[in-house]
Recover the amino acids of this structure.
């Protein structure tokens, strides 16, 4: 669900809000359980140490639930809002939200932008969002982009996730400028030419130590969405365009997105998925970046363009998600949404039920076992002329649902040939 593509049902839902209602730097929760452990902070999805990714995985979890028509737990939403610093920024995790943030608090643009998208989606947190957007604008770099940490050079991933926060909140990125340059201007500086020996249309994360741009699949998926003005949640393009790379003296952002989609298509053609090699180890399937690539390809060229990697995820990603936790389930839900695939039957896995089970029970899901809930949902759909289930309808009528993993730890390491 994208803010620029609201349905009439979503518009009606705006009258109600939730009462009290491959992560950057760290992978998703590697050991989820049916309920959070006693040592996990109350309201947080997943059971692993949230020090490096708490806000990121919480934001993706809430955004994915909203995308699937689920009303998140008010406790979970409050956990996220409580993580905000007085200046509007979010850190990956604050163990004591009552303690004021100081110079040592590791605030960053990625967690802040993800939180904005999640809180805008669930609704009812205008002040929190306004303060977060104000902080993001205050740390914009002179080239129009953002780095992960304020004061660091811009990179494609951070700039793209902030673009997603801007567009989700109906803020035109082209009007958010620093020294006359917008985020789109910054993104185009990371776009590579079409020649295979020069990058084949990919996006680079940022220049390396020698100032050279190297193709990066993670940054490319992020760059496609950023260049298109999309957030973590994106809809499929209305029409499918051929995935081809075309050089231009002054490429448009749409042209750069098409070039980058062509790069992803070519990279995925070999195995149907992306790969990563960390610490000198052999190449391994990269499930998270493959899910991000599915969203990017669908957003740029239509759902059909993402069919092959989507099929691979449906066949192979269940074990990875079970081991990785909330953010992983969210990424797969985003991939399902972008391609019009049912997230409750994703390769025979109910991604929504699995995500819900990693945290506090949502407000919009009945307190019954998953099998019964699925059976009732199918029965309700038969009794309803709407193509959606009753719980989906209840969800949209109670909360304004509007719908982004860019895992920073992988970005500099996943250089693609």
């Amino acid at each position: 669900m994208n803010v620029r593509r609201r349905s009439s049902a979503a518009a009606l839902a705006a009258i109600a809000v939730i009462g009290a209602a491959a992560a950057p730097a760290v992978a998703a929760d590697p050991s989820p359980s049916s309920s959070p452990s006693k040592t996990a902070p109350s309201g947080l999805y997943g059971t692993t140490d949230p020090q490096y990714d708490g806000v990121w995985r919480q934001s993706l979890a809430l955004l994915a639930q909203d995308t699937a028509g689920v009303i998140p737990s008010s406790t979970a939403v409050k956990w996220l809002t409580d993580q905000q610093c007085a200046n509007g920024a979010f850190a990956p995790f604050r163990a004591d939200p009552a303690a004021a943030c100081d110079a040592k608090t590791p605030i960053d643009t990625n967690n802040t932008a993800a939180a904005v998208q999640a809180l805008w989606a669930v609704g009812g947190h205008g002040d929190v969002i306004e303060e977060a957007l104000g902080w993001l604008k205050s740390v914009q770099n002179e080239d129009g982009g953002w780095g992960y940490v304020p004061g660091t050079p811009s990179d494609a991933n951070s700039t793209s996730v902030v673009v997603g926060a801007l567009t989700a909140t109906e803020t035109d990125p082209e009007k958010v400028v620093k020294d006359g340059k917008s985020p789109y201007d910054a993104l185009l500086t990371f776009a590579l030419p079409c020649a295979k020996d020069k990058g084949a249309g990919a996006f680079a994360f940022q220049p390396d130590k020698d100032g050279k741009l190297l193709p990066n699949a993670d940054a490319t998926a992020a760059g496609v969405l950023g260049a298109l003005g999309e957030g973590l949640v994106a809809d499929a393009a209305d029409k499918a365009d051929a995935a081809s790379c075309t050089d231009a003296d002054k490429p448009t952002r749409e042209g750069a997105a098409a070039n980058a989609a062509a790069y992803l298509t070519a990279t995925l053609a070999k195995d149907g998925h992306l790969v990563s090699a960390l610490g000198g180890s052999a190449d391994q399937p990269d499930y998270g970046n493959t899910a991000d690539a599915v969203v990017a390809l669908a957003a740029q060229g239509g759902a059909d363009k993402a069919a092959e990697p989507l099929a691979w995820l449906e066949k192979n990603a269940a074990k990875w998600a079970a081991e990785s936790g909330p953010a992983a389930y969210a990424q797969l839900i985003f991939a399902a949404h972008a391609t019009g695939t049912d997230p409750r039957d994703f390769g025979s896995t109910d991604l929504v039920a699995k995500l819900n089970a990693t945290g506090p029970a949502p407000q919009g899901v009945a307190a019954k076992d998953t099998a019964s809930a699925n059976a009732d949902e199918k029965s309700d759909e038969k009794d309803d002329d709407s193509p959606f289930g009753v719980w989906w309808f209840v969800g949209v009528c109670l909360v304004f649902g509007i719908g982004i993993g860019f895992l920073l730890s992988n970005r500099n390491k996943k250089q693609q040939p």
In short: The chain has a mean pLDDT of 82. DSSP finds 16 helices and two strands in the chain. The beta strands are 274-276, 284-286. The CA atoms of residues 40 and 200 lie 44 Å apart.
